[in-house]
Write a structure and sequence with these properties.
Elements: E1 2-7, H1 19-22, H2 27-40, E2 44-49, H3 53-65, E3 70-74, H4 83-92, E4 96-100, E5 122-125, H5 130-141
Parallel strand pairs: 1-2, 1-3, 3-4, 4-5
Helix pairs in contact: 3-4
Length: 145
Amino acid sequence: MKILVLNGPNINMLGIREPQIYGSETYEALISNIESYCSKKNAQVECKQTNSEGELVDFIQKAFFDSVEGIVINPGAYTHTSIAILDALKAVGIPTVEVHISKVNEREAYRQVSYVSEYAEKQIIGRGTQGYIDAIDYLLEKPEN
């Protein structure tokens, strides 16, 4: 299976940004863990991070033409603001799992709104970086795979 893992703004600052909320694991360690896990599962994975909303939309659109079979996305703050990301996901029709490291559903009211959840098949919230592995497992274990 070909999986695209997308991370939005400030995810590259893991380990530095509010470790009491996001933990001490670095972004580099997260990506290494994802790549190692996917290798063991014989899944092809590509991980991308950007602070740009438009670039996330471009990555999603490109996934369609690259025959990606599943998307794991942590849109960061764009979760709560980006109809463009939602529309891109709807346009490509690729099974998607939304991941949030923190318990966004227990934080500020504005963080409890997710446009992406309107399309995502599943949300994984508050499991730390383990949520990415859970999302990959979900995609790999879907009956149609």
